[in-house]
Design brief:
Ribosomal Protein L15, Chain: K, domain 2; 5 helices; mainly alpha
Length: about 300
């Protein structure tokens, strides 16, 4: 049987770095440390472990593992990949830098545009308030215009009614005016006839001589008498008026002639007053008609 060895105080001694200060050895250690870490191949780890050992304790390496050409190609390929990745990272960093610069410039421009938009928003709010005020004013003006339009239509209707009434009144006035013209012509004819009769009566009066006093009737004074008094005197059987000569009674023919003359004078006075009234009414009608024509025009 073998002897039982006590391994209580044993420890595993292994190096993690070479003791030598050789710079070339240190460079090799750095290289293979990187390769063992990044490639994960066992050969690189064995070489790194051998580099940590001393020259006396360094074990030999089999030639089948020293396929240097293949390893060199792999190292070159790995170096190319690393360089490509480094360049790619550098390009990405540069592109990111340019992107960051462009984003900063865009951010600055966006901030400027935001300020401009804020200013425009304030202006638009002011314009919206002003437009709202103008809309309210236009709405009130529209209501006023609509009310005035309605009043205008009502006024036009009233004017049309007034025009129709005025036309009817004018037609009535024209008809009345024509009637008054006809009446005036008729009264003028009657007046001319009465004047002719009055002239004839005056001539007859001047030519008649009283049988009792042998004096003309133009010397007898005629007093105005009313129709009632004429009727009362007509009923009297006999009448003797006083004469300017001494106590000579008047003739009955003279009395009848006097009564007839007074009656004709009263009728003539009434007709003259009626004609004057018609003339004044005609003048008033002409003035009213002219005013109505001026108002219509």
């Amino acid at each position: 049987m073998g002897i039982d060895i006590n391994h209580k105080n044993d420890r595993k001694v292994r190096r993690t770095a070479p003791k030598s200060k050789d710079p070339y050895l240190l460079l090799l250690v750095r290289l293979y440390r990187f390769l063992a870490r990044r490639t994960g191949q066992k050969f690189n780890k064995i070489v790194l472990k051998r580099l940590f050992m001393s020259k006396t304790n360094r074990p030999p390496i089999s030639l089948n593992r020293l396929n240097l050409n293949k390893e060199r190609q792999e190292i070159k390929q790995l170096f190319r990949d690393i360089e490509e990745k480094r360049n790619e990272i550098h390009r990405e960093e540069s592109s990111l830098h340019h992107t960051r610069i462009s984003l900063q410039s865009e951010q600055h421009s966006l901030e400027q545009r935001k300020l401009l938009f804020d200013i425009e928003r304030v202006k638009m709010q002011d314009l919206a308030q002003e437009i709202a005020k103008r809309a309210e004013e236009l709405e009130s003006l529209g209501e006023i215009a609509l009310h005035e339009k309605r009043e205008g239509h009502m006024a036009m209707d009233e004017a049309e009614k007034f025009r129709v009434e005025l036309d009817s009144k004018l037609k009535f006035i024209e008809n009345s005016f024509t009637k008054l013209r006809a009446e005036e012509e008729k009264m003028n004819k009657m007046k001319a006839k009465v004047e002719q009769e009055l002239d004839f009566i005056k001539e007859t009066k001047d030519n008649i001589v009283c049988n009792l006093c042998s004096s003309g009737l133009n010397r007898v004074k005629l007093n105005g008498m009313t129709r009632t008094s004429l009727q009362d005197m007509a009923n009297v059987p006999s009448f003797y008026g006083s004469n300017q000569w001494s106590g000579l009674p008047d003739d009955r023919a003279l009395l009848i002639w006097q009564i007839t003359g007074q009656q004709d004078a009263a009728l003539l006075q009434q007709e003259t007053a009626f004609i004057n009234a018609i003339r004044t009414q005609t003048l008033d009608t002409d003035i009213t008609f002219q005013q109505n024509e001026y108002f219509i025009n």
